[in-house]
């Protein structure tokens, strides 16, 4: 069986993306001394669960508005989903799918970063079993709400991909 060992973030504006991900997750970025613009991303200390990755300038056009997700979506484990949500929104991210329980697993939410890339955050909590609207920090910048006639998970992701990227 093969495991994922590396991820890459493609960015129209690498400096903007570095600022966003450093602010939201505390990741460190080091410019690679190679033949192309590339930054190595360290997401945590050696020996801890997870993988490290890289960031590079987007090659070609960004995904078109309304285009379905056409890549693997990475989910980041966090200690406090509400705190992380605030950092994401402060940094220019947009909620694609608000905080929701994954019974027996934890609390999950999806966002788009400043480059239009969709990613998830998960706060492990084996007791997660019902939606708690009172604590959600996701209110206000949601792409689409199925409780108000939205199209569910795929509708959220499609709506999130239609938003304008920040300059």
**CATH architecture type:** Roll
How are the strands of the largest sheet arranged?
Answer: 1-4-3-2
For the report, how would you describe the main beta sheet?
4 strands, mixed
Query: Considering the protein shown, what is the CATH homologous superfamily?
Result: 2,3-Dihydroxybiphenyl 1,2-Dioxygenase, domain 1
Count of DSSP H/I helices: 3
Q: What are the low-pLDDT stretches, counting only 5+ consecutive residues below 50?
A: 136-167
What is the chains' assembly state?
Answer: single chain
Question: What is the CA-based Rg, rounded?
Answer: 16 Å
Instruction: Report the helical percentage.
Output: 10-25%
H/E element string?
A: EHEEEEHEEEH
* Number of distinct beta strands: 8
Q: Span between N and C termini?
A: 41 Å
Strand content: 25-35%
The CATH topology label is 2,3-Dihydroxybiphenyl 1,2-Dioxygenase, domain 1
Return the average pLDDT rounded to an integer.
82
The level-1 CATH class: Alpha Beta
- Count structural domains: 1
Secondary structure topology:
Elements: E1 7-11, H1 14-25, E2 28-31, E3 39-42, E4 53-57, E5 75-77, H2 81-90, E6 94-102, E7 106-112, E8 118-124, H3 152-162
Parallel strand pairs: 1-4, 5-8
Antiparallel strand pairs: 2-3, 3-4, 6-7, 7-8
Structure report:
20% of the residues lie in helices and 26% in strands. With 167 residues, the protein is an alpha/beta fold. The chain has a single domain (7-162), classed as 2,3-Dihydroxybiphenyl 1,2-Dioxygenase, domain 1. Strand 2 and strand 3 (39-42) form a beta hairpin. The longest helix has 12 residues, at 14-25. The chain is globular and about 50 Å long.
């Amino acid at each position: 069986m093969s495991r994922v060992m590396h991820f890459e973030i493609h960015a129209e504006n690498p400096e903007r993306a570095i600022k966003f991900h450093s602010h939201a997750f505390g990741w460190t970025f080091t410019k690679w001394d190679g033949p192309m613009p590339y930054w190595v991303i360290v997401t945590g200390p050696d020996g801890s669960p997870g993988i490290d990755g890289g960031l590079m300038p987007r090659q070609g056009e960004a995904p078109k508005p309304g285009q379905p997700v056409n890549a693997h979506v990475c989910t980041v484990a966090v200690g406090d989903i509400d705190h992380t949500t605030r950092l994401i929104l402060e940094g220019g991210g947009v909620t694609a799918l608000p905080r929701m329980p994954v019974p027996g697993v934890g609390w999950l939410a999806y966002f788009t970063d400043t480059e239009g890339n969709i990613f998830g955050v998960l706060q492990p909590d084996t007791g997660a079993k019902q939606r708690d609207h009172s604590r959600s920090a996701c209110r206000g910048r949601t792409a689409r709400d199925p409780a108000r006639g939205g199209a569910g998970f795929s509708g959220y992701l499609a709506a999130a991909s239609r938003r304008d990227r920040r300059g």
